[in-house]
## 1
Amino acid sequence: MKAGIVGLPNVGKSTLFNCLSNAKAQSANFPFCTIEPNIGVVNVPDPRLEKLESLVNPERVVPATVEIVDIAGLVKGASKGEGLGNQFLGNIRETDAILHVLRCFEDDNVVHVDGSVDPIRDKETIDMELQLKDLETVEKKLEKVARVAKTGNKDAQKEQVVLQQLKTGLEAGKSIRAITVSEEDREEFVRPLQLITDKPVLYVCNVDEGSAVDGNAYVEKVKKAVAEENAEVLVLAVGTEADITELDTYEERQMFLDDLGLTEPGSAKLIRSAYSLLNLQTYFTAGEKEVRAWTIPIDATAPQAAGVIHTDFEKGFIRAEVIAYDDYVNYGSEAKVKEAGKMRVEGKEYKVKDGDVMHFRFNV
Ligand code: GDP
């Protein structure tokens, strides 16, 4: 999974990126890397993985990961080539979800590009750039399709109607996700365009330290403004979170969080929200060599889950041996679970549940 961080300059994007991809914040025995300065691979925090590790004692533990891309340089006019925006807009297209950071903190030392703190105006500025970029894509496609439609091609005519609808919506300042298109048409004509404003979005309200728990008036405004979008709003004190990740030990970080009245780092909350935004869940494999978390869609079947490990596993899928996470922990080992008759054998139709510990049997 890949998520792109967008927002105006100086709203806290890089701070958030650094804090998410800070090696110190990641458990020491987990592999971690930053691919490029603006791309990081973030481990998905999951206490269940640590629990399984303590039970199995594997050689290594591999958490699920999310790739985060810091998309800097989005400013007014980016879609028209202002700043570095246009170049970065291309990067957003490759992401699965968007984390839209909004400045909801006041600080005279941090300059706002438009002179005052106003998350709603900021959001509209960014949305407009993204919509204009999408409009460009839609118009290009529409031109091609219209030529074919003219020849009497029924499919092209159908597509033309949908594209025209998208164009009208975008021109009226709507994001693609807010335009009503039938599921069928969306699948056939809209999805392949990989439009930026069609991607699920999570609004991250960057607040001052004192508002980390309850938010503030700016956050309330944002919540109201996005109510119709069916999007999630997350309150994060990004600057404070960054300070926390600088602390050396887990205990120190936990104490800082306690002081603030938080139960977990915002990065954990953020990644969890991104998971639910994308309808993702986790299953585990647990052997002596490796205990590992895998990411799958919520409605994935057992063969699809196997396919995440290797496509051959999916093709040759025979059956899955499944232990519910709670059973694994309650009985303490795979052997004991088996003894108790709690290991299930599931077939091709099985819908994997969050936390399942699985073995796959397959033909090669
Ligand atoms: P970007 O341009 O969106 O990547 O913004 P940066 O992450 O570089 O942040 C811009 C400035 O705002 C930096 O000086 C940060 O230290 C500061 N900043 C970021 N988040 C916060 C915050 O939550 N509170 C305050 N007061 N300052 C912040």
## 2
Amino acid sequence: PAFAAIIVAAGKGIRAGQPLPKQFADWRGKPVLRHSVETLLEAGAAPLVIAIPENGEAAAHTALDGLAGYTLVAGGVTRQQSVARALSAIESADTVLIHDAARPDLPPAVIERLLGALETHAGAIPVLPVVDSLAFEEEGMMAGAAPREHLRRVQTPQAFRFAAIRDAHAIWAGEADAGDDAQVLRASGGEIAHVAGDERLAKLTFAEDFMTRLPPLRTGMG
Ligand code: CTP
Ligand code: MG
């Protein structure tokens, strides 16, 4: 089915410490951002709106050289503002996927699971279990333990009925920065389904994340 998509790529990538903002840095032979743009275009995303840094147009066009079918918008100071600006650039859509450029390896099967769950829910997110035990820390010391049974690690892309997430973002605007878009929809009462995430969707955050630990998503490419 047709779906709109947003990729937020307007951050500074400070923690990654790469020579370029991390979304434009190299990952497995091509720019980080290019990976998910190619995957979402191949999956049929239309429109595909990418939030980029102020004055980041040249870097984005270089990273996406030869690709067509995307539009660029200037992002905001926070991730949430970048999403809000990208949502404003979409005139109409039934469903929208919102994705972090910082998660380049996006298995198409995750997209299918998310879109499937949207048939019954206003939102859907990919999650993984927590396998480590969890500790509360105070002053460098263990102050208690937390049960992990009901905790999940949440990834992107996150999928939403377009009108629901657009309205939820408008209501949330001005509040504290949201961790992700599912939190924004949840605050407006939207029901969000969990689907299986994928370890390959790991987010590139720190410099060491750029050291490859998992095999490439697609064999024979990049
Ligand atoms: N992002 C964005 N606009 C912002 C901040 C973040 O579009 N104002 C995007 C980033 O480009 C990234 C995603 O949100 O794709 C997740 O954010 P994060 O991993 O924190 O990336 P950065 O903010 O760029 O990194 P850092 O916090 O280390 O500076
Ligand atoms: Mg950040």
## 3
Amino acid sequence: DTPQIGVAGMAVMGKNLALNIESRGYTVAVWNRTGSKTEAFVKDHSDKNLVPSYTIKDFVNSLEKPRRILLMVKAGQPTDDVIHEILPFLDKGDVLIDGGNTFFKDTMRRNAELDSSGINFIGMGVSGGELGALKGPALMPGGQKEAYDLVAPILTKIAAKAPDGTPCVAYIGPNGAGHYVKMIHNGIEYGDEELISESYDLMKNVLGMSDDEMAKTFAEWNKGELSSYLIDITSKILTYKDDLGSGKPIVEMILDRANNKGTGKWSSENALELQVPQSVITESVYARYISMMKDERVNASKILPEVVNKDIKIDKDKVLEQIREALYFSKIMSYAQGFEQMEIASAHYDWDLQYEQIASIWRAGCIIRAKLLEPIMNAYKKNPQLKNILLDDYFKDIAGKYQDAARNVTSLAVQLGRPVPGFSSAITYYDQYRSAQLPANLIQAMRDYFGAHTFERTDRPGNFHYTWYKEQ
Ligand code: NDP
């Protein structure tokens, strides 16, 4: 069979996606810079319809036209290198898909560059890690719509399926839209992980719960509205014992320095650039940064005083339920910010993003898959122009029911000296967003006082400057 698609890049993601595509009845051409990896891969899967090539030219020429090539190589310069090597062998109308974790502005640039030579370029966010790639990832492709249509049948077959059977792939929008949405997905992932970790910290250090008890609690929470992949794996992680014999749960033996690959930072940087409040995700990025300063923290822990009231009466069952409610409330704030950022970006970059569809394709395959995405879908189904999910009835009701818990958990943590950047930024965002009046008038007054930056008035239009002081 002539291969209907080629996969370039035989590291873990490329190999698993190639096997996934092959398992849906396609013949897949495969190529890797280091040929021995291609050779080993096809040898390990000799019963599969895989066609190896050891030069780019052979690889491209082996494909059915218009050609469909999925790049799964290291993001950044390596992606540019491979594109430039492939380009001379492509014809007008061929489709290149970059499935790497690429910065969306690189995708916008590449899409424009290749478009001028008649090559279609799709930047596709892929989520779900190696297992997702093999069994069914969530896919977020952006680029030329007609190019998407050429690859849609394959992508639809390999994507994860939501509980109602809907494939977790959809055309996201032009140029960098797909990689942008993947970036927001990753930012939201940072927020979710931070909020779950804060919940764990409060259970452990305020309520004195054991890892087994916490595991059971998270498993219980996973049956309700918090149901999600990350809550599920948390409940499992807490049950694993140290494999090096300390007798402790493995999680308690893991150093508390949270690393990152920069995608959370990208979404925060873009929020700053587009002037969108995105505090929960950004606090989560900062939380990882301060976690990395382990030596400094250990040193400061011996120097800086802690003055807290240890006599606060705590009703364990009550506080535990409040943590659950605060977690759901805070997660909603994080998603509200992430979706509003996408709305503002969509207008800014002219993408026409479809939020119901985005929520839909995040329901399976990806890391943030969660029950919460169903009410988000419903909110955008009812009103595709919705400014912020908090204005939808479901979320308005949750905010009404759970804000008391969000306030109590945050203030309890603050009184006891436990850091809760996620929880506190969530309730603060809620209070800012619903405030008709903020103290920004005083900021404007100061700006006008020292810099004559002018201000608007509450009672009439126009820009005003006040004569704060007379020249001496
Ligand atoms: P890596 O990101 O580790 O990339 C390794 C691959 O890139 C190898 O095939 C390597 O070829 C190739 N490569 C590196 N530099 C060059 C170059 N200059 N020219 C040609 N080929 C080059 O692999 P992963 O499978 O982990 O990820 C692939 C992409 O998917 C990345 O962009 C990643 O961010 C993204 N991704 C990864 C996920 C994951 O869970 N790992 C999840 C979602 C997306 P060689 O063998 O010759 O060195």
## 4
Amino acid sequence: KHFEPKILPLKGKKVLISAGPTQETIDPVRYFTNRSSGKMGYAIAQVAMEMGAEVHLVSGPTSITPPTSVHVYQVKSADEMFEQITKLYNDMDIIIKSAAVADYRPKETFNNKLKKNDQNLVIEFERTKDILKYLGEHKLNQYLVGFAAETDHVLEYGKNKLVNKNLDAIVINDISNKEIGFQSDYNEVIILTKSGKQIKLDRQRKTDVAYQLLTSISEELRMD
Ligand code: CTP
Ligand code: CA
């Protein structure tokens, strides 16, 4: 899509996007992570830039080349992601948290490679900080968007996250549907807004989902 320079809908807006998985270190050769490819977040970064925004992309480890003229901050762990995002937060107008942040990390990180033994291995995990919840609690005037990955009670759980994390909108992914989501170039989501909108986006390219999401955000910001 091409936008006329005069009608760039996100011109003058600073947009912070988090994308990809996080990696939680176990020992020098092993980590704990998830199936996120980062494609959804990178698509949002690309389209936000085309819509005229100043884009800051905080990314976990992915194999995607970031769009040019986007500020990129590469991080690994949930903790590093928290530090980078909170550093940028107060200066941003819109935050979109599409990253799949690990909920748990190994309680202990081993400096030496764990050697195998004849028994089972038990690794104890502890909770990471909920970055999005923290952002909701420390919100000034930012428009805050979360993602929700659900396999069941999709709308109900998604709505709970919108409310509990003090978000302005949430993008709900039904990850029980194997044809879309994580590794795919396609997604099918429902956007719920605090203002009461419910936008169902049928299966389409992630760049088109990104466009619909950013258009909804820019419309809501214009109504303030
Ligand atoms: N999130 C976050 N920090 C975490 C965990 C999640 O910022 N430590 C954010 C994600 O980036 C996403 C939103 O919270 O935007 C929802 O993530 P999700 O995994 O669907 O929900 P959780 O709140 O972690 O709850 P659960 O995994 O138990 O469903
Ligand atoms: Ca989670």
